[in-house]
Amino acid sequence: MSPFPQAVIRLQGVSKVFPDVPPGTPPALSSLTADVPSGLVVGLVGPDAAGKTTLMRLLAGLLLPTSGSVEVLGRVPGSKASDEAVHDVGYMPQRFGLYEDLSVIDNLNLHAELRGLEGPARQSMFEKLLTFTALKPFTDRLAGKLSGGMKQKLGLACALLTTPRLLLLDEPGVGVDPLSRRELWKMVSELAVGGMSVLWSTAYMDEAERCAHVLMLDQGSLVYQGPPAGFTGRVAKRVFSFVPPSGEARAMLARWQQEPDIRDALIQGNRIRVVLRNPHDGPFSRKGVELHPVEPRLEDAYIDAVGGMDQRPSPFLPVSGRGGAEEPGEGRGNLSGERLSPSLPRTPSLPFPKTFARGREAGGLSEGGAASRPSAESAGAGGSHAEESAKLSNPAVADASSTEPSSASPPSGKYGNRDSISANVFGRGGMGARGKGGESFSPEKFLLPSPGGSTPHPAPAAQPVIRAVSLTKKFGTFVAAHDITFEVQPGRIFGLLGPNGAGKSTTFRMLCGLSRPTEGECFVAGMNLLTAGGAARAKLGYMAQKFSLYGELTVQQNMRLMADLYGLERGRVKPRIEQLVEALDLETFRDVRAFNLPLGQKQRLAMACATLHEPPVLFLDEPTSGVDPRTRREFWKHINAMTQNGVAVLVTTHFMEEAEYCDEIALVFQGGIIARGTPDELKGKAPGAAKNGGAADMTLEEAFIAYIEEVQRKGGHA
Fold first, then answer.
1. Residue 363 in contact with residue 27, Cβ under 8 Å?
2. What is the pLDDT of residue 229?
3. Where are the domains of the chain?
4. Coil, strand or helix: which one is 435?
5. Average pLDDT over residues 334-347
6. CA gap 283, 334 in Å, rounded
């Protein structure tokens, strides 16, 4: 008998196998049996390629199961009975699926026509939904011109036109800023209070934690069903934090991430948070630091359940910083905590062995096997292009308003004469050029010997390698960015945060040389981007917000093309590609076309292409949007390692937890910087922080929202 007599969804032995996939590929869904209680917000949780989107499409009647039975509101999706009650189910797909060349009101009218909503009932519903979503002032705006948060609100409004009994939301929080996510969650919660059942798919554990009930998937199988707290309890008495010595957070994190009894470790402001393998009562000392217990979160339990973080050292670390490299990491586990692959001896000649299984073949929670599910779990940017990447590497296709001469293109052999890539992936060679109108850049004068004396580390107060000076960008009378000024030193991470439409991407594109500022100047590696052109762009790597590589090319073909565009010497191309394939775990997907990749692998490929030419400056525009927590850990392990080699990083993100990795943050709103400082400084100085316990009791997300709301209270506008 079902544990939920009022279940809104019933699944019995549901499997889905897609045709034309490689032999041995696990099914998209496998023998899935579950009941979803009615009248609640239920989280559908799992990483990229876990089967979430496949299940959503089955429930919406867009796919049929290979075997098993699916019931939604007592009917079989796709049946005649279900067709007669189609308005009872609202579905909001993962990616924005409305007409971008139509206005907000035109999209609503089109969906109302399709659903047979006419006359006074239509106008009454429009008034209600436009007020509910706060879209009333934007009815004439083209959907393609809306911010990420406003697009999600429009999608939600279209899904709610007929007041469905069940609302299916496929990752509605991806690419949405914290303020918009909070508003979206508030709206959905109100719908549930009113009696509507909601299934909310997400890879973000903080969203799942807010749900009353969760279904957790691992490669198509159900591995947990119940309240989030029931899953979080698996790491009770195992979560601690400590304050590392000043200036040593990243180096200490890299070492602790390789400790065999540490399941997870990450930076949180001025602290490091760790999940131990075994429980421990109360505070205790370890390696000269005092560890204090902290409240566990769903994300802590999730990382522990998937086998812990990947403990292999990043190959991007300086040689002297790879302590513990002789200790192989664990294989990736599944959600039961089962170890899926044996420890293997490390091959000295490689960053880590190609035979390291990570549990893919054994069925661990991962993106594994997802390459074989192009039609289900990878609904990506098929047919997308590399226009922006080409602009960065080839001044002939750069901003049409640019005045830089075509002769600025980096010549062949520009990146030769470097240290061995296996010794120092992001080495110092090729960074001493002098740009026109700029000063010479030589990082050696900004680097200090490490305590071990072998690998240089950036000085805390080094000469900046990124400088924005009063950057302003106007589109007609609209000011997208105003008087943006900041600096970034070698080996530092600078974060640009802000709500959708605040001016972050505009600022980002100016600093990358992709958009010419109306006023102000920007410098990269000592060179003025307005005059140095391709010579300056060759000093930076750029990872775009949206996947922008060639979808019809394979992983390896994309990397070869970008190596050519960046002018890598022919003899360097193959070993460089091999190293990045190894480092970013792309071996399984080497011959897979980019548009067939799962989201997490698309992001890995984009990072590989951005770093092929070993740039001293790295621009990352929302690099981990939509990927699961374990994949985020891997990304940031590599990013942190790059900074230890002196790479300066400029990053935008809507995920506040990863913003804690930044050395400094600028909060952008309405085109200008409204707050700036370290993560802890921003939390400590946020409006209302003092009366609520200060930085210690405020999250960065809470601080983010507090700053925005303070500006709005003083007469600003959204």
1. no
2. 94
3. 9-232
4. coil
5. 35
6. 30
Contact at 8 Å (CB) between 364 and 217? no
Helix (H, G, I), strand (E, B) or coil at 255: helix
Instruction: Please name the helix (run of DSSP H) or strand (run of DSSP E) that holds residue 56, with its range, or none.
Output: helix 52-59
Q: Region 458-480: what's the mean pLDDT? A: 83
Contact at 8 Å (CB) between 334 and 306?
Answer: yes
Mean pLDDT of the chain: 77
In the beta sheet, which residues pair with residue 72? 9, 75
List the alpha helices (DSSP H) in 330-422: 387-393
Cβ 571 vs Cβ 565: under 8 Å = no
The single residue listed with the structure tokens 């993106």 is 367
Mean pLDDT of 480-486: 93
Reference 616, options 537, 701, 514, 534; nearest CA is 537
DSSP 8-state assignment for residue 572: H
What distance in Å separates the CA atoms of residue 438 and residue 434, rounded to the nearest whole number? 7
The tokens for 427 are 């080495």
In this prediction, residue 204 carries a pLDDT of: 84
Beta-ladder partners of 479? 474
Contact 499, 179 (CB under 8 A): yes
The sheet carrying 519-524 orders its strands as 478-488, 466-475, 519-524, 527-528
CA 580 and chain centroid, separation: 19
Structure tokens, 56: 């959503």
Q: Over pLDDT 70: what percentage of the chain?
A: 76
How far apart (Å, rounded) are the C-alpha atoms in residues 704 and 645? 30
Residue 339 is predicted with a pLDDT of 34
Q: Which tens digit of pLDDT belongs to each residue from 271-325?
A: 999 999 999 998 999 988 999 999 999 999 999 988 888 888 887 877 654 544 3
Domain 9-232 in CATH 1.20.1070.10: no
Determine which helix (DSSP H) or strand (DSSP E) holds 693, and give its type and residue range: none
Read off the pTM: 0.73
DSSP readout, 195-229? T-EEEEEES-HHHHHTSSEEEEEETTEEEEEE-HH
- CA gap 328, 348 in Å, rounded: 12
Pick 581 or 383 by higher pLDDT.
581
